[in-house]
């Protein structure tokens, strides 16, 4: 499962804003931190605002802040806004979908997709932020071992 | 007033006793809409009654009312795995969720696992049970080094 660019940008923005819900950040600030296109991110943020996941603040120092419920909002809720996720799909670009081997490959690809989707659906923003906070500790621990 | 008293009373986690089994059966039926009395009596016999060192059947109660339970065991070398804590079941009364009952049960059984000397905890979940998947992930659990596989057995007639 490979996420499209807009989806990745959305996940960066949602997690960055949710890490401190009281804080407002502009598209430029988020884009600079993650070295991504500000223009593209601005469009993504507007989509997130339309979905009620972030809200825009006007005026001096305006920007965006997180507006969702971090324990309820899942990674999949964000992903689905930007790309279609369907179980048991048959992609138009599947090679030879009407052959025995093509169908068998699709069966295995669907199995992989099902696990990926269950994973995204089960990780809330709150859980993801715990992973974000744990990773530097885990990396430091691994570096100490080597 | 009753709701306030209920919230104020501390949750108590303790080993299950035989008298808890009817409440465990009722809670499981409330959640799964399927009564399994024989299964839960058997689980109590295997994990609660005998008091084995590495088997745990814990209940959470508040004001003498069962709010949830958890069952697990430290097992070794199945599937080639070094000793590891396994959680087989965890249930929390639906009306009592999002109040930390599941987390306290999880922490309590992890403490028991630690006492047996293990450093990993494992469980197995249905892919479509997002509620329980989300709960375990919120406790820091992630995909482990094993994968569950299964097949449907062909009938004898189909094989001939």
CATH topology of chain B: Aminopeptidase
Shape of chain B: globular
CA-CA gap between termini of chain B: 69 Å
Biggest β-sheet: strands ordered side by side in the sheet of chain B = 1-2-3-4-5
CATH class of chain A: Mainly Alpha
The Cα radius of gyration of chain A reads 18 Å
The residue fraction in helices of chain B comes out at 25-40%
For this structure, the CATH topology of chain A is: Arc Repressor Mutant, subunit A
Assign the structural class of chain A, choosing from mainly alpha, mainly beta, alpha/beta, alpha+beta, or little secondary structure: mainly alpha
Number of beta-strand segments of chain A? 2
Overall mean confidence score, pLDDT of chain B: 90
Record the strand order, biggest sheet of chain A. Answer: 1-2
What summary fits the major beta sheet of chain A? 2 strands, antiparallel
Write down the oligomeric state: heterodimer
Give the low-confidence spans of chain B.
Answer: none
Give a quick set of tags describing it.
heterodimer; A: 146 residues; mainly alpha; Arc Repressor Mutant, subunit A; two-stranded antiparallel sheet; 2 strands; 60% helix; B: 160 residues; alpha+beta; Aminopeptidase; five-stranded mixed sheet; 6 helices; 38% helix; globular
Summarize the structure.
With 146 residues, chain A is mainly α. Chain A is built from six helices and two strands, in the order αααββααα.
Architecture overview:
The complex is a heterodimer of chains A (146) and B (160). Chain A is mainly α and 146 residues long. Chain A has one domain (5-145): Winged helix-like DNA-binding domain superfamily/Winged helix DNA-binding domain (Arc Repressor Mutant, subunit A). Helix content of chain A is 60%, strand content 5%. Chain A contains 6 helices and 2 strands; from the N terminus they run αααββααα. Chain A has helices at 5-18, 27-34, 38-50, 75-82, 100-122, 125-145, and strands spanning 54-57, 63-66. A two-stranded antiparallel sheet of chain A has the order 1-2. In chain A, strand 1 (54-57) and strand 2 form a beta hairpin. Chain A is globular. The model of chain A has no long low-confidence stretch (mean pLDDT 88). By secondary structure, chain B is of the alpha+beta class. Chain B has one domain (2-159): Gcn5-related N-acetyltransferase (GNAT) (Aminopeptidase). Chain B is 38% helix and 22% strand. Chain B contains 6 helices and 5 strands, in the order αβααβββαβαα. In chain B, strand 4, helix 4 (101-115) and strand 5 form a beta-alpha-beta unit. The chains are: A mainly alpha (146), B alpha+beta (160). The interface between A and B is medium-sized, with 15 and 11 residues.
């Amino acid at each position: 499962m490979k996420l499209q660019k807009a989806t990745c940008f959305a996940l960066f923005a949602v997690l960055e804003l949710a890490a401190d819900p009281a804080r407002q950040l502009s598209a430029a600030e988020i884009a600079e931190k993650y070295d991504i296109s500000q223009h593209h991110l601005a469009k993504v943020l507007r989509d997130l605002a339309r979905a009620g996941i972030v809200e825009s603040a006007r005026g001096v120092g305006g920007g965006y802040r997180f507006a969702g419920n971090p324990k309820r909002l899942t990674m999949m809720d964000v992903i689905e806004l930007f790309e279609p996720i369907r179980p048991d799909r048959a992609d138009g670009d599947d090679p030879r979908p009407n052959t025995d081997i093509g169908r068998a490959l699709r069966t295995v690809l669907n199995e992989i997709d099902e696990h990926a989707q269950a994973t995204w659906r089960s990780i809330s923003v709150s859980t993801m932020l715990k992973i974000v906070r744990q990773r530097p500790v885990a990396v430091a621990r691994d570096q100490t071992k080597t | 007033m009753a709701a306030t008293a209920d919230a104020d009373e501390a949750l108590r986690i303790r080993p299950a006793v035989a008298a808890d089994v009817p409440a465990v059966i009722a809670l499981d039926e409330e959640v799964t809409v399927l009564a399994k009395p024989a299964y839960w009596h058997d689980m109590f016999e295997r994990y609660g009654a005998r008091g084995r060192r590495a088997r745990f059947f814990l209940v959470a109660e508040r004001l003498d009312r069962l709010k949830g339970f958890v069952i697990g065991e430290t097992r070794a070398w199945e599937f080639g795995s070094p000793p590891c804590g396994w959680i087989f079941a965890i249930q929390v009364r639906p009306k009592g969720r999002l109040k930390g009952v599941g987390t306290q049960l999880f922490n309590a059984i992890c403490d028991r696992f630690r006492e047996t000397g293990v450093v990993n905890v494992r469980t197995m979940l249905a892919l479509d049970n997002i509620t329980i998947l989300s709960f375990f992930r919120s406790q820091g659990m992630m995909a482990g080094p094993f994968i569950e596989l299964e097949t449907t057995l062909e009938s004898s007639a189909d094989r001939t």
